[in-house]
Amino acid sequence: MKPLSIYTLFETHKELSLSHRYITNTHIKPLLNTLGPDFTVETIGASVMGDSIYAVKIGNGKKRILMWSQMHGNESTTTKAIFDIFNTLAFGGADVRQIIEDCTLYIIPILNPDGAKAYTRINANAIDLNRDAQLRTQPESQVLRAVFESFKPHFCYNLHGQRTIFSVGRTNKPATVSFLSPAQDSACTVTPNRKIAMEVIGVMDQTLQELIPNQVGVYDDAFNLNCVGDTFQSENVPTMLFEAGHFPDDYARDKTRGYIYTAMIASLLYIAKNDVLGDHYKAYFNIPENGTCFYDIIIRNAKIENINQDIGILYKEVLVDNKVHFSPVIMKIEDLKGSFGHKEIDAAGREVRTEGLKGLCVDSVCSSVLIENNIVSLELE
Questions:
Q1: Among candidate residues 265, 258, 229, 224, the one with its CA nearest the CA of residue 244
Q2: What residues does the Peptidase M14 domain cover (predicted)?
């Protein structure tokens, strides 16, 4: 399928009840309860706080694919895309039926329901589950490991979200989607199963380049066996890390979900239709590595204590009344040449201060500033 055709499928089958950043078991339970007869829904364990961890199985093919999302509770974009895919597999027609004819998908929509509810990266014991792959001290880690051992996947999709700071290389292009074929040893050897993951990632990159040119990156493959992807890769299962990043003005990540969806469908179709042997892995190395060149806002040429400087601002995500709010925090006051703002304001050498006439301070929340005598809001519109 052509990339635009896949994206059109997304627009047709997008799950409208899921939106913005706060996605929990409360949001997905009604959807799990109404999945059609092609789907099997299982409760595969419980979180630290006793909330259910669900899995969905669909397909009867020989190629087994394991996916898990919201290992980090505040990374929900891929969870939304999963339910868009469920709708597509249920109603999308012959073009996508091959996926469930040739593949069996086993998908955990929310691995860390406590973190999802609290909108935090960590679980209820303050543990990062993506650093618990070896010791498996947490019930959520044990659940994922048990599924890995019983399902015996041929491919793993490790689904995450990334911050707005990431750029494609050192450019002014945001890394809207990023990938990684994790290392499986400290030498970062390009092993046969890494080549298989790289080949599939190369296909996804080629697909996305037609929709978001120059907005796809890859992560550094430094090895850490405590990470789940590195562990599964080290056990010779081709594993792909997905990172849902920033698309201009899309802080709700409802545009990015479409690109994640497109990449996932393209990869599933490729796996369904082909014996992926890793022969075409070299395209992976054409994808630029991620940089960290972005702030959410940069105020350029600001006069502060009679010195012209730039002000770099990042939004801190805060859960208030079950909704994610974006609080502007000053991160740096210095020359930010080589950095980019998703929004840029030129103070043109005029004095910049807070509304209370106080000086600007790093690490302080600042919802608006005065540029000379003009109030400029830093809140999301």
A1: 258
A2: 18-381
